[in-house]
Amino acid sequence: MSLFIYNTLTQKKEKFQPLNPPQVLMYCCGPTVYDLLHIGNFRGAVFYNFLRLWLESLGYKVSFHYNLTDVDDKIIQKAIEEKSTSEKVAQKYIDEFFKDFNSLNLKEHDSNPKATEFISAMIQFIEKLVQEGKAYTAEGNVFYSVRSFKKYGKLSHKKLDDLRSGSRIEIIKSKKDPLDFTLWKTAKPGEPYWDSPWGKGRPGWHTECVVMIHKGLGSSIDIHGGGMDLIFPHHENEKAQSEVCHSGPFVKYWVHHNMFELSGEKISKSLGNFQTMRSFLTEYNAEIFKYLVLNTHYRSVSEMSKNTIYQAMSGLSRIYQALWKARQIIKISLVRQSDGSNKEIFLKHLRQTRLQVEEAFNDDLNTAKALAVLFSFIRFFNDLLPEDSYSEEDRELSQLFLDCFKEYGSVLSLFQQEPLDFLDELDNILLKKTSLSRDQVDQMIKDRKKARESKDFKTSDRIRDELKNQGIDIQDLKEGSKWRMNPGFFIEQD
Q: β-strands 472-477, 480-485: how paired?
């Protein structure tokens, strides 16, 4: 079973064949660190973490570099606002980024190169572009001559004459062509700068990734990731710079993820409709965010709203309740014999589940489809073992069920928490959306128990209904009544 990945360059799914197997060289454009990062910045972090882990599970040895842009106009402006320096501001928000990243329990990157660590290498690279006749100087600035690169526009599939200046491109009169982009910009008064053959200044944004890739991974890599908003001009400009200095393709597979949207609009700071990752993790938790990301195909727009958050919580609740049930079956005393009929049926379904999950992962990293397959497996498991009494065989099947979720969950960076702890955490999150505290709910459950014991069913039903109207479900078991929050209660119907 081969892995196929959609390549932005060719606009089709291609069989994944790295340049030097089993080695895979992978680079992803990371954030510009001038503030706490919003949730949209972390969709890529979660997805490319999965891509890296899936490649490793297939036997590849992945070297994953994820950069940090630590010099930029926004960082300079933030330093002015905070009466600090660009260096201190950048380091402050790099530290804050890693707090959020680590809270998501994602695998550490092999390298996190920072732009300021490669200034001298960028100057040398820009000098080479000038020598090659692909760049020119003007008033202390250096610009890349877009029309000198005949393949410009191939990645973004745009015709050169139809292109318009994109984000982060300054309109400067000294350019020979409006489409030419900045490689080196003259420092303004009060800005950080570095000495160069063209005077004091700093590199343009589009050069830093090229140099960091060349220095850290080589002139050709297997995978370059980033958001779809980076295809043009950023990645188009990276490609143009690299491929005039080195023979062969800069990147074999260009992989781009789509955006989060809120009510049909891209979530971004510029639109003012963002939520920081820090505030999301404070209100909810990491598992919910990762599930939200992976329950949508990476090339599709993902809707971020209260409803989608509650839907994610509902899905996770079902998963963790099944994991808790499997653990309980393994622990309980055996009370019946097995005729062996369940095992054959279970093993057949397990093989089918594994096959379908891996087919989904290998079909352009379709995590949403894989999660749907796992939900089908949960329904099957619950239907196969519905009773309160179990056998030694049921213990074995429950362990196989847990092993399956642990294996695929480790690749997704999901389902690794203690089930009961996670379910309690979900309850605590949702209780804050009600007028009740945990102590009040527990007391109401006790009052209902007394009413049932005294056959006061009117009071018992009233308490049950009061709890249900707050999104709290009661389950009456032999050992007593238990309650759980119902995330589906909070989903608003259209």
A: antiparallel
